[in-house]
């Protein structure tokens, strides 16, 4: 295999992606559609017609009763112990999951990715120090780490994002570093270095584009884990303050009514399940496609 | 891919478990009227540690449940909170209420063979009375001037002022649990090293803060008892885990299970729910010190008027809590005063008027972060919202909450008090002005300081006549209604849940578990 002296990705990224046309694959289309539907319903919840206020219940003048079953009049998926509409609460709770999921992936990707690329490209002492510090964090069980950070910071959306992003940073850094290491010794990087390009330029122009693909795929996976972590923190009472709905706190709320009113747990639980499975399948699908693109290149 | 597969498997397993649990049948022998039988062992799930096997260190009802397997008290308390003889046969009080003469059972020995007599009682009381020993019961012993042996089976207690609660709080409390004088001497005064009493069980094995096992003492004075061969107490701090340990029959008795599990337990044919009643209560308490949004009594009254505990109870629990409380003495307890003149009961219109007058009320409500309390917190906030009171709810962990309470560091708190069997324990330690210290931690959490209230509480504690005492506590409650340090929500009702083949454990409003008469049907 001969190595080009100029970086094909940096030289013609746009032309390359347009040059290939592929059949839509079910691996990507099905979970993608499902995710889009859930996200749209959650984000549009405040303006959907016929959806009651998520915090209105029997104690503050809402219509209906405590613990109504599925398909009750006015409450399609029933109500919780305080008589609040489960569909409305689940969709509003989904907003929180989406914000926290995407937010923590963005924060983790930015910090972890940067650290990893710099460490991998620089090598030597920088690499050793950065990666050993991150290894320490990797050794902690992630939920425990998130618990500690969430307890310390207190309940708010930015704090939740920080707490969850925290544990993902080392994994992003490892992936980014591996990518950067493999690119570092390639000929086009050497030639760029020989022509006097500065390290910053090489990192942004040549190294980052080759790492971003795998980072984003991994980000999708992490997004699912982040949503589960948010739900776990809320389930344990460390998420956003009630009465603001969240899938985790709704499930904690309903767990004692499981034998008499299972819908209180099952409605948010099913939404959580579908979202996370779709994210995982989508990440899988995209990785398969990237892999096959890589091998046919 | 690894993660998604694991997620899917877990979800399927969870659904499967749900289906299985929904159609369970009884797993223990059905034995409603079985006669007492000997043998077998009992495993009890406790909500906290017994702390120590020395009665001097007894703190919560959990300590007493464990200690009373090994040590007998001079007097037991019955389900009404009255004293009934155990090691003592009875007592006589002098007319001025200052001298109590107690007669003892004769011919009893401690588990190490030492005879139980008046001298042994004096030795025990001298030990707990010595401030150097730091008994957790010192507060109640301040009234005690002298303890003397009159003869071999009679002891005389002399008080420095009348105290109606003396038999309940002292003779039936931690100080009344009798340890062997020889063991006290040999352990240098620390019975935890070698717990020896006259009780039905002897210590087998103790793992501090985790589990303790006792086995039947063959020479117990009642040859028929105990029925059980052994008892193991296990600490399972989380109420939900305690309940699931019971449903899986890993334990036989679960102490103090959250009310939210009652619906589930009722559907399970293997379980029996034993409500213990309540001597304490759940309430919202307000910080009355400077800079608090609740410094103005009208703000506190408006907050109480906005709440309808019956409606909240109906929505959350189907109407099973002890609501209707308007004094520190819960509904259906012995000192229940019913409606109290001047208490700010449910009246949303007037609450709204006061809130408008005050230009709005906004504060933070603290409570422990158990799922049950988080629901109650939301329910309270929803009712306040209706009258224009803005409450931010802030769940926190139990130790932080208690620390903030003692440090007077809160606007308002939803709080549980376990309750005292003598009514004085439900008022003086909470409301006496000598404890209203904003800068030092104290049990007068909300800084109540009112001279009239102080006098009313002291006079009620000194009265020995039950009816007269009841009247004086009504006066205390009426003064409290004016001050409104609390909005009462409902009684701190205990629920013990057991497998249906466990019998013979008496119900008590202070939730102490007596296992002398307990038996298991195999």
Automatic annotation (TrEMBL), chain A:
Designated name of the protein: ABC transporter permease
Positions of the ABC transmembrane type-1 domain: 94-283
Protein family: Belongs to the binding-protein-dependent transport system permease family.
One Pfam family recorded for the sequence: BPD_transp_1
Keywords carried by this UniProt record: Cell membrane, Membrane, Transmembrane, Transmembrane helix, Transport
Transmembrane segments: 28-48, 96-121, 133-153, 159-176, 215-240, 260-282
Topology of this chain in the membrane: Multi-pass membrane protein
InterPro entries: BP-dependent_transpt_permease, MetI-like, MetI-like_sf
Keyword Transcription regulation carried by entry: no
GO cellular component labels: plasma membrane
Coiled coil: none
GO biological process, one term: transmembrane transport
Superkingdom of origin organism: Bacteria
Compartment annotation: Cell membrane
């Amino acid at each position: 295999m001969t190595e080009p002296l100029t970086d094909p990705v940096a030289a013609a990224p746009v032309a390359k992606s347009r040059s290939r046309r592929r059949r839509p694959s079910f691996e990507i289309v099905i979970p993608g559609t499902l995710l889009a539907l859930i996200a749209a319903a959650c984000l549009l919840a405040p303006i959907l017609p016929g959806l009651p206020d998520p915090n209105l219940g029997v104690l503050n003048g809402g219509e209906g009763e405590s613990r109504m079953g599925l398909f009750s009049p006015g409450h399609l998926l029933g109500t919780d112990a305080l008589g609040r509409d489960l569909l409305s609460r689940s969709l509003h709770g989904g907003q929180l999951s989406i914000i926290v999921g995407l937010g923590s992936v963005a924060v983790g990707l930015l910090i972890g990715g940067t650290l990893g690329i710099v460490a991998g490209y620089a090598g030597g002492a920088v690499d050793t120090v950065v990666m050993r510090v991150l290894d320490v964090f990797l050794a902690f069980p992630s939920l425990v780490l998130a618990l500690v950070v969430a307890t310390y910071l207190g309940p708010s959306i930015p704090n939740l994002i920080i707490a969850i992003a925290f544990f993902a940073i080392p994994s992003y850094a490892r992936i980014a570093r591996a990518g950067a290491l493999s690119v570092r010794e390639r000929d086009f990087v050497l030639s760029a270095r020989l022509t006097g390009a500065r390290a910053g330029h090489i990192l942004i122009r040549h190294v980052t584009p080759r790492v971003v693909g795998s980072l984003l795929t991994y980000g999708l996976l992490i997004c699912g884990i982040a949503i589960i972590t948010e739900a776990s923190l809320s389930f344990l009472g460390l998420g956003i303050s009630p009465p603001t709905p969240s899938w985790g706190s709704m499930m904690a709320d309903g767990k004692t009514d499981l034998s008499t009113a299972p819908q209180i747990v099952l409605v948010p639980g099913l939404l959580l399940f579908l979202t996370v499975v779709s994210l995982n399948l989508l990440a899988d699908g995209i990785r398969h496609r990237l892999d096959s693109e890589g091998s046919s290149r | 891919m690894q993660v998604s597969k694991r997620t899917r498997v877990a979800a399927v397993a969870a659904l499967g478990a749900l289906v299985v649990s929904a159609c369970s049948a009884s797993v223990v022998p059905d034995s409603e009227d079985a006669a007492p039988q000997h043998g077998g062992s009992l495993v009890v799930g406790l909500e906290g540690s017994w702390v120590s096997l020395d009665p001097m260190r007894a703190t919560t009802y959990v300590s007493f449940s464990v200690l009373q397997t090994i040590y007998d008290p001079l007097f037991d308390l019955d389900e009404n909170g009255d004293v009934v003889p155990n090691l003592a046969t009875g007592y006589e009080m002098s007319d001025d209420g200052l001298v109590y003469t107690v007669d003892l059972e004769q011919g009893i020995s401690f588990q190490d063979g030492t005879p139980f007599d008046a001298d042994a009682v004096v030795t025990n009381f001298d030990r707990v009375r010595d401030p150097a020993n730091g008994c957790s019961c010192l507060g109640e012993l301040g009234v005690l001037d002298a303890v003397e042996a009159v003869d071999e089976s009679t002891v005389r207690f002399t008080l420095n002022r009348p105290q109606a609660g003396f038999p309940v709080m002292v003779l039936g409390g931690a100080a009344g649990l009798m340890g062997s004088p020889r063991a006290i001497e040999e352990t240098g005064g620390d019975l935890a090293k070698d717990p020896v009493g006259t009780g039905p069980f002897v210590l087998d094995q103790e793992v501090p803060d985790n589990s303790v096992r006792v086995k039947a003492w063959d020479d117990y004075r009642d040859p028929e008892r105990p029925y059980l061969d052994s008892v193991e107490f296990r600490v399972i701090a989380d109420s939900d885990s305690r309940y699931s340990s019971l449903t899986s029959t890993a334990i036989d008795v679960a102490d103090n299970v959250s009310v939210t599990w009652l619906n589930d337990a009722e559907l399970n044919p293997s379980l029996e729910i034993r409500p213990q009643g309540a001597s304490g209560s759940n309430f919202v308490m307000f910080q009355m010190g400077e800079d608090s949004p609740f410094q103005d009594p009208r703000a506190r009254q408006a907050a109480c008027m906005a709440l309808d505990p019956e409606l909240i109870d109906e929505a959350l629990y189907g109407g099973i809590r002890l609501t209707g409380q308007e004094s520190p003495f819960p509904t259906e307890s012995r000192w229940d005063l019913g409606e109290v003149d001047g208490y700010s009961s449910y009246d949303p219109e007037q609450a709204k008027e006061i809130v408008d007058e005050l230009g709005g009320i906004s504060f933070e409500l603290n409570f422990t972060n158990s799922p049950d309390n988080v629901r109650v917190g939301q329910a309270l906030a929803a009712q306040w919202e209706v009258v224009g009171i803005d409450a931010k709810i802030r769940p926190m962990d139990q130790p932080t909450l208690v620390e903030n309470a003692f440090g007077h560091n809160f606007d308002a708190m939803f709080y549980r008090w376990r309750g005292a069997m003598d009514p004085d324990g439900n008022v003086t330690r909470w409301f006496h002005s000598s404890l209203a210290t904003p800068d030092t931690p104290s049990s007068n959490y909300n800084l109540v300081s009112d001279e009239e209230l102080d006098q009313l509480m002291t006079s009620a504690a000194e009265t020995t006549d039950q009816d007269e005492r009841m009247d004086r506590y009504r006066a205390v409650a009426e003064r409290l209604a004016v001050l409104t340090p609390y909005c009462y929500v409902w009684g701190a009702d205990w629920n013990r849940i057991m497998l249906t083949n466990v019998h013979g454990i008496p119900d008590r409003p202070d939730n102490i578990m007596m296992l002398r008469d307990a038996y298991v049907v195999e």
